[in-house]
Design a protein that fits this description.
By secondary structure, this protein is of the alpha/beta class. The protein has two domains: 94 residues, Elongation Factor Tu (Ef-tu), domain 3 (Beta Barrel), CATH 2.40.30.10; 117 residues, Nucleotide-binding domain of ferredoxin-NADP reductase (FNR) module (Rossmann fold, 3-Layer(aba) Sandwich). It contains five helices and twelve strands. It has a six-stranded antiparallel sheet. Strands 10-9-8-7-11-12 form a six-stranded parallel sheet, sandwiched between helices. Helix 3 links the parallel strand 8 and strand 9. The longest helix has 14 residues. The radius of gyration is 19 Å and the shape is globular. The protein binds flavin-adenine dinucleotide. The site of flavin-adenine dinucleotide has 22 residues, from strand 4 and strand 5.
Length: 244
């Protein structure tokens, strides 16, 4: 009798069971989770996965998380999750999930907030807090496939302890940090919220922008980018949540 070969389903809509293969603490409230996927497919930088948790009584909670890693990491994705103290899903990841755990995921999703490498350059990335995650996928992928392509990141964080991917971003001349609530000692760079001066300087020559963060962050950064002369159709935005 002929052996049936299992069909490998690679459609992004299918739920699959990922295995947590590494956990890295980024900040006191943010952790990155590297997942191995049995039905992995390459994502576009900027895309996200849905994650679903199921309680023993059948209750389910589902949230979206952007991929922070490059699609060149075959078979794996990395999600970076900010723990909201009163949240349902993010504290579970932060406090309960361990290496070896199995997590239900499906993706990758989205076709608008993606960097394909063919957009008009230079590219400006503007992130607030955990909004840096999909932008990091773009930065990381660009480093590996188009290292000469101009791409700059403007990243707004509260304080020195809140810089996600701090080690990787440190010393990168294309990264502009601003601290909104307290800069480290000796800091001579920008402080306070992203403003017209900071955006105008960073946006010089930029043709395409990606903005990601809270609703309020995205609203104000987009207005500043329009004032700086970027065309509305080349400003792509992603909103993570309600707070400012
Ligand atoms: C496309 C997309 C990609 C996302 N990618 C990421 C990512 O890479 N990393 C990440 O940490 N999050 C990301 N998020 C947000 C994530 O989906 C959840 O909303 C977040 O983790 C909160 O879920 P929770 O169950 O812990 O909190 P909930 O139980 O859903 O909410 C708890 C409380 O926090 C408020 N709240 C909900 N979301 C936020 C938020 N983002 N910021 C502030 N307050 C909020 C709620 O109004 C509520 O009061 C993304 C969201 C979208 C839509």
């Amino acid at each position: 009798m002929e052996r049936l070969t299992p069909i490998i389903q690679r459609a992004p809509g299918r739920w699959q069971i990922a295995t947590v293969i590494a956990i890295r603490e980024e900040t006191p409230s943010v952790k990155s989770f590297r997942l191995a996927l049995p039905m992995w497919m390459a994502h576009l930088p900027g895309q996200h996965y849905d994650v679903r948790l199921t309680a023993p009584d059948g209750y389910r909670a589902q949230r979206s998380y952007s991929v922070g890693s490059s699609p060149l990491d075959e078979g794996e994705i990395e999600l970076t999750i900010d723990c909201l103290a009163d949240g349902e899903v993010s504290p579970y990841f932060h406090d309960v999930v361990e290496v070896g755990d199995r997590i239900e995921v499906r993706g990758p999703f989205a076709s608008y907030f993606v960097w394909r490498g063919s957009e008009p350059g230079p590219v400006l990335l503007v992130g607030g807090g955990s909004g840096v995650v999909p932008l990091m996928a773009m930065l990381r992928h660009r480093r590996r496939v188009l290292p000469g392509a101009p791409m700059r990141l403007v990243y707004s964080v509260r304080g020195a302890a809140d810089v996600i991917y701090g080690d990787e971003l440190a010393g990168d001349p294309d990264v502009v940090l601003t601290y909104t609530r307290g800069a480290p000692d000796g800091w001579t760079g920008h402080t306070g919220r992203i403003d017209a001066e900071l955006i105008a300087a960073a946006a010089t020559g930029a043709m395409t922008a990606y903005v990601c963060g809270s609703n309020a962050f995205v609203e104000s950064a987009t207005a500043l980018l329009l004032d700086a002369g970027l065309a509305p159709e080349w400003i792509r935005t992603e909103r993570f949540g309600p707070s400012g």
